[in-house]
Design a protein that fits this description.
78 residues, mainly alpha, elongated, Antitoxin
Length: 78
């Protein structure tokens, strides 16, 4: 199920959306916006997981290196 919402976007963002659709890189404005929001949602979930690992395993154990590695990953995940 999906719902329709109205949002205001800066002109340059709408131009980008229209260009992506016009060039055939996306099927619609909505598909590009949905993909971008899903990416942001996954990024936030990944950052939350890194914070949980970092907070939970502060003392020396087998996951210290994993938590440090996860914390060093850029926040703009693809």
């Amino acid at each position: 199920m999906s719902r329709q919402i109205a949002v205001r976007l800066p002109d340059e963002i709408v131009e980008y959306l229209d260009q992506a659709v016009g060039e055939g890189r996306e099927s619609s404005r909505a598909s590009l916006i949905t993909r971008a929001l899903e990416r942001e949602r996954r990024r936030e979930i990944a950052l939350r997981d890194v914070r949980i690992l970092t907070d939970r395993f502060r003392q020396a154990d087998d996951l210290d290196e994993l938590a440090s590695f996860g914390a060093s990953i850029p926040s703009d995940l693809a």
